[in-house]
Every structure is written in C-alpha cells, then in structure tokens.
Design a protein that fits this description.
Blueprint (H helix, E strand, L loop, with lengths): L2 H20 L4 H10 L4 H12 L4 H15 L8
C-alpha cells in the first residue's frame, strides 16, 4: 500500500475513533466506515475492541495521552 494511502487511512481511523469516543458515531458505524475505506479487518477489531469491552472514557483518554507522549519522543509520563 502506498505511504500516502496508509497515512490517509490512519487519519480516517483516528477520526472514527475520536467520533466514537465523543459519542458522535456508533461502534458499528465506525467499523463499517473503516472497512469501506480499506482498513484490514484485524485493524478494525483491534482499535474498536476497547469500546466493545466497555472501557471507560477516562482510561481511553489516559491511554491516548500516553501514546501521544511516546510518539512525541517523551519517556514515562510524569518523568
């Protein structure tokens, strides 16, 4: 898959997850949207699984913050 296409797909997945997190989109609609855009089934399952398992919004936000910190090159949170 071309890098530009992967980046667009990744952005679409992030937007879908944010919409589900905020309550603007259902989990099933997000899955349909991602699959229609060409996201592999395994990826759709992996990213939506926390929502199906009932993970609290606070835990999702904490996890997102730690992932963003790692992407930005930071170490452990609070360090």
């Amino acid at each position: 898959m071309e890098q530009r296409t992967r980046l667009k797909l990744r952005r679409l997945i992030e937007l879908c997850l944010d919409s589900v997190r905020r309550g603007f989109m259902s989990v099933s609609r997000a899955a349909q949207t991602m699959e229609a855009a060409g996201a592999p089934f395994e990826v759709v399952c992996r990213v939506l699984m926390p929502f199906k398992q009932g993970v609290s919004h606070q835990r999702l936000n904490d996890r997102r913050m730690s992932q963003e910190t790692l992407r930005a090159g930071g170490g452990a949170i609070g360090a």
